[in-house]
Every structure is written in C-alpha cells, then in structure tokens.
Design a protein that fits this description.
Length: 458
C-alpha cells in the first residue's frame, strides 16, 4: 500500500478541505439503522458526548482545585506554584479522589464509543482543555518532578555530577526538602538527554523550573496525541478514536500529566520515531527512538521489533548512529559516569511497590511478598515473551503490536510499578492491528486502578 492509498483510506468519512491544503476533514459519521432503532440519534449522541466532555472537565477541575487547597495527603508538599487556587477548593481526600476518577473513567469510555458521531473539534478541544486545567494546578500524586529539578540544579548551580551524587550532596538547596525520602541519596536514573535538558530549565529558579517541567510534560502529551493521529492516518485508519484513547485517558491526564512525568517525553519521542519509520525514514526513526531511550530507557524495547518488522538495514544503522551520538553527548556532559544510571535502574528494580502485579499475586498465594528467586522467574518469563514475539514478528506478525505487548509485559513483570508505567504501551496499543493488544493494555490499566479502590470498601 502506498502512502497515498493509506491517506485516502483514512478519510472514509471526510469532506473536502475548506482551506484547500489537501488535509482530510473528519466529519461526524451518521448513525446506523440499528443505532437509530436503539434511540441513538445523531443529535442525542452529540448532546450525550458534550455532557460527558463537560463532566470530564469538571471532574478534572475538582481534583486540581481541591488538590491546590494544600490539605491533601495525595498532593506532595511543593513550592507555592498554584496559590491562586488555594482558597477555592476543599480537602481532597482519597475517597473523593477515587470517585472523581471513576466518573472520569466512565465518561472516557462513553466519549470514545461516541467519538465518530460528534465533531472532532469538540473531542480534541476537550483534550487540550483537560491538559490546560491540570497544567494550571499543583503537582499531583508524585514527587518525581522535584528530583528532576534537583538534578538539574546540582549540575548548574552546585557543580555536581548528578550521575555521581544524589540530591543530598546539595542538602541546603531549597528543592531538597521536597524530594521523596528514598531518592535523596540516589544519583539520577534518567538518561543523559533528559538530564542535560533539565539544566537550562533549572536556571529558571525554583518555581520557574517546576513550571517549565509542567509545560514540557503537557507539550509532550499533546504532541503524542498529534503523533498518534498522524500515525493512524499513515496506517490507513480513522485517527479519531486512537487519538482520544490516549489524549482523554484519565491515567494519562491525572497521573502522568498531573505529575509532569518524563515518561511523556520518552513516549513522544518514541512516537515521532515510529511516525518517521512509517513515512519510510527508518534511519531517522530509529535514531529518534534511541533519543527517547536517552530520556528513559524503556522505549528501547521497540527497536528490535522495528528492525525485524521493517527488515531494513537503515533501522540498524540509525540505532547504532543514535547510540554513538548519545554516548558522545553523555561523555562530554558527564564523563565516564554517564553510564552509572544503569546501576541505579537495577537497584530500583529491586524495590517492591504495593501496586505491582507480582506483589499482589504473591499475596494471593499467601506469601508475604516477592523474593529474589521470584524476580529471577519474572526476568525469565519476560525474556521468553520477548523471544516469542521476535519469532512472531519474523513470521509476519505486526511489529507495533509486538512492541506494545513487550512494553506491557515490562510493566506487568516489574516489582516496582507506578501508575504512569501502565501508560507506556498505550500510544502503541491504539495503533495496533491486533485489537486484543489494546484490550490487554486497557485491562492492565483497569486492574491497576481497581487495586486503588480498596479504601472505598474498607
């Protein structure tokens, strides 16, 4: 299939381009006869969808405003960056947060089901509004952003190598008291590209750096929505549902964007690389994915499947060139210690979070937790999954689907699982030819959130 054919297929419900630039215009799809008999008329579908979108904005705003009150254990102590909201909301307790999230998840499902029946400007506009609402509020549910800023300030203001020292080496820096206790003595586990990018942001001052990280996270998330749209078009699919499955996802908006996690930057660069590969720019595509892995290492899992699926030497040469370029940048910026983040990652994988699937399975069998032997079994299982998928791709299975399953398997088998790890596979899953992969990804997110609901019943 040529690029032109794919583009034409993606515009099956398209009108002419009003500005004459040749871009497809995705018009609402009329209801089928069965849908009309069920009472789902086009005007009703639009009213319902608009109501769901408004409810999503209200629910997100309530979390943000109540979180800004400064009275919630869900909101980490932070420099004052959203004081203008401080006196508006009430205390955000865990029960209220969970109920808000359940409402958001229900609305998300409804909007996705009706997405083809309403003007795309409504749904994409809601994606932007939700991101801006979260941007305007405090840091939500995570202290990671303070570590990002601390490592940047260590390099720029204190002359310390963040791959050698933890934030405690600059204990008098005002950011130090906001960093999570387990990470105060730990050098950075992030890639050299992200660490270098944090340097100029750190120069914006304490609150300026936090705003800079928040803006960067919002830009990366919206950029990923755009990349999903463009990739879906290149694959010959209607891009509306895939884009909304990512952009309106409550775990993306509240946990990932709310915490300004650098996973979003990694995901954006990964999707740019895939978009380039789908446009036949395999060298640049694979090099861009390597760039994403130099933010956070997880996206490197895509490269073996891209190489086998695309069957082009340029994927390998682009990967090698990307690694060489990043290695040079890392050595110039941080010396031989730039690779020390690998040992930090290994140490982190020895941690056990209460939300991890292995930990919960262990509890189901009456065990107190995960032991070293269990970790060896998990690593072996992950290795078998990867080998199996590589063989499947070699035999013709969709490499995007295989990449999705691998990233999902990494999240499921790790003993250190956080909410935003369940988002890693999502932008790939929405593009997968194998619908089971998308359902599996949403299912893992659903199981993760279901585990959070225990306080509602105790």
């Amino acid at each position: 299939m040529t690029h032109t054919d794919a583009h034409a297929m993606s515009a099956s419900t398209v009108g002419s381009d009003p500005v004459g630039a040749g871009a497809p215009v995705y018009a609402p799809t009329a209801a089928t006869g069965r849908e009309r008999r069920r009472g789902l008329s086009d005007p009703a579908a639009r009213r319902v969808t608009l109501g769901l979108l408004v409810l999503m904005v209200i629910g997100t705003a309530l979390i943000v405003v109540d979180g800004a009150s400064g009275k919630s254990a869900l909101i980490p102590p932070s420099p004052h960056i959203a004081n203008y909201l401080r006196d508006i909301g009430a205390k955000l307790d865990y029960h209220t947060f969970l109920i808000d999230m359940l409402v958001l998840i229900g609305c998300y499902a409804g909007v996705v089901l009706l997405a083809r029946r309403v003007p795309i400007r409504w749904t994409l506009g809601a994606v932007v509004v939700l991101h801006l609402v979260v941007l305007a509020g405090p840091v939500l549910l995570s202290q990671d952003i303070f570590s990002y800023v601390a490592y940047g300030r260590m390099g720029t203001l204190h002359g310390l190598n963040p791959y050698v020292h933890g934030p405690a080496a600059a204990i008098h820096d005002p950011i130090y008291r906001f960093i999570g206790h387990p990470w105060k003595h730990v050098p950075t586990a992030y890639g050299p590209v992200f660490t270098l990018a944090s340097y100029p942001i750190a120069l914006l001052g304490l609150t300026g750096a936090l705003w800079g990280m928040k803006v960067l996270a919002v830009a990366a998330s919206l950029g990923t929505v755009w990349m999903v749209w463009r990739c879906a078009e290149l694959l010959g699919r209607d891009p509306r549902v895939p884009s909304l499955l990512f952009g309106l996802n409550p775990l993306v908006v509240i946990y990932d964007v709310g915490g300004a996690h650098n996973d979003l930057i990694m995901g954006f660069l990964m999707m740019v690389g895939i978009w380039l590969a789908l446009r036949e720019h395999d060298f640049r595509g694979s090099a861009t994915i390597v760039l994403g892995a130099a933010v956070k290492a997880t996206s490197v899992a895509v490269l073996p499947f891209m190489a086998l699926g695309r069957r082009r030497v340029s994927v390998v040469t682009g990967t090698v060139a990307g690694i060489a370029a990043i290695a040079l940048i890392a050595f110039v910026g941080f010396g031989a210690h730039a690779l020390d983040f690998i040992s930090v990652l290994r140490r982190q994988q020895s941690f056990v979070s209460t939300d991890s699937f292995p930990n919960e399975v262990a509890h189901l069998f009456g065990l107190p937790g995960v032991f070293p032997f269990d970790r060896a079994l998990l690593r072996g299982a992950l290795g078998l999954v990867v080998v199996y998928l590589l063989v499947r791709v070699w035999r013709g299975y969709d490499w995007l689907s295989a990449s999705t399953v691998t990233m999902l398997a990494i999240a499921v088998t790790t003993t250190w699982l956080l909410a935003w790890y369940t988002v890693w596979a999502l932008p790939l899953a929405v593009l997968s030819r194998d619908r089971r992969v998308l359902w599996a990804t949403l299912g893992v997110q659903g199981l993760f959130f279901a585990h959070q609901l225990a306080p509602l019943f105790t």
